[in-house]
Each structure stands twice: as C-alpha cells, then as structure tokens.
Amino acid sequence: MNTYTIFEQVLERQLLWCVKVPFADKDKVKTLRAKWDVQNKYWFWEMSKQKAFYLREKLESLGFVCPLKEQENELIVKMIQLLQLKNYSYKTIKAYKSAAKQFLAHFHECPKVIPSKYQIENYLLHLSVNQKLSSSYINQIINAIKYLLENILELPVQKYQLPRPQKPKQLPTVLSVEEIRQILKTIENTRHQLMIKIIYSAGLRVSELVNLKVKDIDLSRNLLIIRQAKGQKDRQTLLSKSVAHLLSNHIETYTLSKEDYLFAGQSNAQYSTRSIQAFFANALNKAQIRKMASVHTLRHSFATHLLEEGTDLRIIQTLLGHSSIKTTEIYTHVSTHKIQHITSPLDRM
Q1: What CATH fold (topology level) applies to the domain 70-160?
Q2: Highest mean pLDDT among 54-58, 226-230, 240-244, 342-346
Q3: pLDDT, tens digit, for every residue of 205-251?
Q4: Cβ(52)–Cβ(6) below 8 Å
Q5: Active-site residue (options: 28, 97, 235, 296)
Q6: 147 counts as catalytic
C-alpha cells in the first residue's frame, strides 16, 4: 500500500505543511519535485496549507492513502474534550492541539507503537536545532506531549520525564513616558488612541482590552474589572481619571449598553487584537521609535513607571494579576531610576 503523512511544522517562525512519502514510492513521486531526507529516509515537500491540500489530492489520485488518520483524529478529539472539561483557555487548547497533531504525524505508528523517551528527546532536539523553535515554544510542546501521553494514552508519568530547555533571562523592553507621548501624537483615530491610553494606563494585555464590556467600567471608583484573564482569574486595576472622561464620552457617542463590548469590530463582534497590533506598529514607525516594541510593551512600561514612582511591588503585582511576586520582580531589573543617579567612576576622573 502506498502511504503518505501530512503535518504542520514551524520553520524559522514560518508555519509550513510537510507532506512525506516512504522511499519505496520514489517512482511515483519523482515527477512532483520532492526533496529527499537522508537521515529519516523519506521524500517530502514543505509548502503552504493551500498547496499541501492540492498535493494531497494529487497523491490520492496516484493511489496513496493516509494511514491512522481516523485514529489520530480520535486521540486529538479526546484530548480537546478533556482540556475543555478542565476549563483550559482557548489559546492553550489550540496550542496543545497543534503540537499533538505534529507529534502524531511524526510518530505515525503511535498509538500502536509508543515512541521511547529517547525518540521523543531526538524529536525535541530536531525542533530546537533544525526548526529553530524558541525555548518557550518547545516547553509548550513538551506540555502538550506529556498531556497526550499521560492523560489520553494513560502512560506512567515517571516514564516521560523530558528535559526542558532553559529559558533565556531577557529583560522586557520599556518605553519612556516621552516615547509613549510621541506614539499617542501620531495616532489620528480617536478610538485607536483611546485603546492605547487604556492599555498603558491600566497595564492591560491586548486580549484583556478587547474583552472589556461596558459593565466592566466602574466610573464612580475609577476601576476596571478584568474578567477571566490569563489563568482564568478576575482582577481590578486602575482607571485613569483622564481616560474615565474619554470613556464616558465614548460610551455615550456609540450608545453602548452594559453587555456591549467597549470596542466592537464589524457586526458588533469582538475587536481584532491583530488590528490593534497593526496600528500600534504603524504608530511606532511614524514616531521613529527604533526599540523592538509591541502593544505588550505598554504593559511593561506601566509596571516600570509605577515602580520608578515608588509604588509598592505587591500593589503592582495585584494590578498586573501576577500569581507570583517573582514574575513582578523582573521590573526591578528594568527600572533605571536608581541607576540614573549613579555617577560612573570615569566621570569622577
């Protein structure tokens, strides 16, 4: 029987679809410009999802079939259902699903033949060295693999104690108050400007902003209620007095009800986070700021500026919604308030 397998993979941060067939079928595929993998001994193609779809049709017209597709799907469905039952977030479920699909496509005889710990470690090494995936991405893939093996295939936990890559200790980028002022000046759309002001003034994640509803605004106490944020947690954070006035006008202008999203897209649906990231990147460019910044940089800037103004670290932890104070402590390394008052020994000469 002629067989093929198909799976997603990330190569140099680009999502590609890989289609592969065994060496024995070389006569059938040599006209389709396949590449040869010397180490694993199979023919393969790397391409976009759309092109992979047409290639699958071509292979199936030549008599190829995709083995274990139904069984793989059954495992994926079972895993998704269990994750949903345990109330995992949509983003986590999506990430686990993608990682599990790629894992099952690589070890295509699984679950009939369970890969050894050594084989899985080699697979992770391939993702790190050849596909150049980040340590945080690989850690997420390890979580998905372990969840699949231990919770779905019910294998012993001790059997798969997989080594995890060490995360690089990088300091977050921080924008100065003047740089944020320049960014706001370049944004002509008043609604876009209000979004950026809320994110910076309250230390929000971009996903938290688009989830905000009118009922989450407490104008009388100058508070924002963030519901079911990262880790399925609710919290309260600051509502700037200057932003409160703008928000009140915004709600009145768009005649929003309590259950309406504060910022809605087309057909009153949730506003796109990508749209916010796009206009912020454009504003950065217009303001001629060369730092590697994103919308999330505003959250880092909020925390750092509060710390430099003397706000207690525990209060910043609460406002950001961090479970551990250690996560918040990174801003003590970013703050330059004390460093700026130190004179270099060279300047004393």
Answers
A1: DNA polymerase; domain 1 (1.10.150)
A2: 240-244
A3: 999 999 999 999 999 999 999 998 887 889 999 999 999 999 999 99
A4: yes
A5: 296
A6: no
